[in-house]
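Throughout our pipeline, every protein is held as a single compact record rather than as scattered files. The record that follows is passed on verbatim for readers who wish to inspect the format.
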Amino acid sequence: MLHIDQSRRTTAGAPPPGWTGRNGGDSTVPHTDQTHRTDIELIPAHTGTTPFGTCYQQCVANLAAWYGLSDAEDVLVTTGGFGWDGGSVLRGGDRWVTAAARLHGLPVQERRFGSYEELRALEEAELAAGRPLAAAVDAYWLPSEYEGVEHLAHCVLLTGRDADGVTVVDPMNHPEPVRYPEERWRTLRSADAADGFRTFLLSGGPTRKPSAHDLARAVSEDRRAHHERDTAALAAYIEACDAAESGTLDVSGAAADRHFLGRLFRHLAVSLPELEAVAVEAASLTRRWYLVHTLSRESGGSPEGRRRLVRMLRDLRGREERLAAHVDEAVAALGA
């Protein structure tokens, strides 16, 4: 799940049809149009609670695993970086989808849509072709600890639909098929938290199998190629946070990239023990990023708490540079 800062929170409004309060998502919907119902059997390989901001990668990893990518959650993400468009949200580098397509030969796309009607047509076409997809939703209307409590971006797998509603699998909170009425799905998908009907499409399995050396080298090459942009984005974010007197920070997007890079290095260290120290350092860095995120949420954006967070961000900037240097050194030593 991804935290939506206070300035971007959505208004609850009236509950959608089929919503019965907390834990109301496991209600069934009658199927009056069985002829045109499309359900795809997908048992997620990667389930359970993962840190803030990682639900997108978890869902895409499940699609990739369904299509045959081994150890998908460990090898899908090979990029880090930072992105900032102003405001309180620090994103990751947003390069993991294109990198996965290139490295693994995965026909994966990230899409957004201008209207629900356009989105629905795409969903129907993909499912009719036998292709499940990953869909951003508002967790406020979804069974989880945030249901009816807080508007957060979340990602689920869409595996079926008919005229009455859809079939959804939530790998994090409820990794079994659940039916939702059409109007409730429209609410879930149309909310501000769903970020422009954000959708991930995958139309087939991997056509390449990169080696452990290839994956390690990809991390180093991505960092070097985007170092200037990433460094500038992080520096600008820190300075903006320092200049503001109060308000919460959202660094879950950046933390999510670090979470999966840590998983990657831990996975690679099994066959490349030379990367063990890097894996440990990456895991430590991930924990520190999530500590900043958690402290910001719990502090409520007080001036005192914000000053402490800015100091932590500056420390993280130095740790990022040190880890990057260690990754480059380790990859060079491998002769990859």
